Structure formats: structure tokens, C-alpha cells
Amino acid sequence: MRIAVYAFDDMTMFHLAVPQMVFDEVTRQGIADWKTILFSDQAGHVRTAEGYQLGGVQGPNAAEEADIVVVPSWFDDGRAPGESLRRVLQQAHQRGVTILGLCLGAIPVADAGLLTGRSAVTHWQAFDSLAVRHPDVFLDKAVLYIDHGDVLTSAGTASGLDACLHLVRARLGAEAANRVARSLVIAPHRDGGQAQYIERPVPPRSSDDPMARLLEWALGRLSEPLSVDRLATQAHMSRRTFVRAFRTSTGTTPSAWIRTRRLDAARRLLESTDLSIDQVAADCGFGSAVTLRQNFAGAFSTTPTEYRRHFDAQLIGPLPGKVVQRRHEQS
């Protein structure tokens, strides 16, 4: 897998590092052979916002052999991209290359015409100007990233990590994304909103936090009944206090969190075992294959059987026709 990352003068090193850090970790972990290269409008070097010069930057022709093209940020003034970058993005998209516009990088992707009639996200500070510039693009302030399969956009700086991890998850599966996240010591997902894509998340709080201990306890008992009352009892709280504390800690309700974790576990088993759908349903606490299918279809717009076939065949890219969105954590 060859990933071409666009670099330009005055880009911050963090924005430039995000896709390289996540995607190169795939190779460092021995999961797959992924290679990132930097390209710009001209070969040579770029000067970062911090004052460093980065050499070895290739010209726009380097993107012609890429499987993924990433624009990891953009100029704060939101200027229009030059003809060179616009052409690179359009031609790559026509070849079936996946395009990522991270943070303000959504601006040149939109200017290249790749988001017309679609939903997208970018840094909140650029929402108003981008909405005026592209009224035919639906901007969603409530999501961390949106994946249309061929084009992916993400919100502010840190959500670029979420988007890149999602791409690892979509291409290589939950185990791969979790390994990358753990190695980089970042959360494999952030709770809230749309369907979660990384299995068995690491509780984000310290082991001394009662809620973190409860989440870890629940993750080990997904095959068992986990009612709100049982969870509240385990947390030594009244039902009302527990529900309020749980939402404050996770951004969602106990039942929604448990359902999502069970779906995570089901995906992991579908990817990595030959267990029957009935057994997967039982092991993950859904009780029956019918209940699993209903929840799975509602969350991922596909069936457990089709999902397993997708990963067994090692197909590249997200599920056909699926628009993936990760919502901001709620408070």
C-alpha cells in the first residue's frame, strides 16, 4: 500500500506527522506493507510552521502510483489550491484512489469537486467560509469524520488520528487498528454517536477510576445479562445516580454502550473465528442470531454473514455503499 501525503510550506509538523505516524505503524507492527511518501507541487523541500526544512519531498508525479492520497491540513486563510494539487486529487479520484482531507485539508478536496452533493466535515473554524464557498456540500458539525468510501474528511487536528485509525480498521480489521492504537498509546476510538469501528476499547480513565473499573468488568462479561440495575449494583450506586454518572463519563447510555461493545466483540469473532452466527450471538450476549442480525444491520448496514465474507476475502476499502460517520463525544 503506497500512501502519498501532500506537504506545503508553513504546515505544522503535527498535521504532517499524523497520517505518517498511524500508517507507518502498520508496517512497523508487521501487519502489512504500507509506505508513506511526501509530495508537493514541486520536488525538493518544504519549510514547516516551526521553522524546520524537510527534504526528500517528491513532485506531484509521485502521487500517480499511490493507493491513498492525503491532504493532512491546509492554509489557515483557506486559499484555493493551485492547479497542480487540484489536478492530482481529481486524477487520483478518477483512478479509484481513496482521498483523505484531514482537518482543513477538506478545503482543497472540496475545491477539487470531490464533495459536491455530499456530507463532509472540517475544522469548526472553517465551517462558515466553506459553507459559503460550497453551498452544495453538507457540513456536519457533530461528527469527527465522514467516510464515503472514496473520500474521507475529518474535523479538527486530533480527529485526524481517529480518521486514520478508521481507515486502518476498514482496510485491515479491528485487530490491526487496536494494535496500532495501543502501540501509539492513543484511544482506539472515541465514544458517542454513530457506529463504533474499533473492538474492545481501552477505558480512557485511570484504573483508580470506579467507572473505568466498571467498564473493564463489563467488557469481560458481555455474554451475560448486563442490565442497568446490575451495572448500577456493581458500581455501588443507585440506578439514577449511575445513569447520570455513566453518561458523564462515556457520553452515552449504559444500554447503548453495552450494545456497541457487543457489536465490537461480534465483529472481532466474525473476523477471526469460524464460529457459527448462533454461537457468535451467544458469546456476545445477543441471545439469538436474529437479535444479532437486527443490531448488526442497524449499526453497519450489512449482515454478519456479509461482513465475515468481506474480511475473509480481504477486500480493500469500506463496505459497499456505506457512509461512515464518527460523532463527537457528548457531555
List keywords for this structure.
2 domains, Rossmann fold, two-stranded antiparallel sheet, alpha/beta, 13 helices, 7-stranded mixed β-sheet, Arc Repressor Mutant, subunit A
Element layout with pairings:
Layout: E1 2-6, H1 13-28, E2 35-39, E3 44-47, E4 53-57, E5 68-71, H2 83-94, E6 98-101, H3 106-111, E7 119-120, H4 127-133, E8 138-139, E9 143-147, E10 151-154, H5 159-172, H6 174-184, H7 210-219, H8 228-234, H9 239-250, H10 254-272, H11 277-283, H12 289-300, H13 304-312, E11 324-327
Parallel strand pairs: 1-2, 1-5, 5-6, 6-10, 7-8
Antiparallel strand pairs: 3-4, 9-10, 9-11
Description:
- With 331 residues, the chain is an alpha/beta fold.
- It is built from 13 helices and 11 strands.
- It folds into 2 domains: 2-184, Rossmann fold, CATH 3.40.50; 210-315, Homeodomain-like (Arc Repressor Mutant, subunit A, Orthogonal Bundle).
- The strands form 3 sheets. A 7-stranded mixed β-sheet has the order 2-1-5-6-10-9-11, with helices on both faces. Strands 3-4 form a two-stranded antiparallel sheet.
- Strand 5 (68-71), helix 2 and strand 6 form a beta-alpha-beta unit.
- The two termini are 38 Å apart.
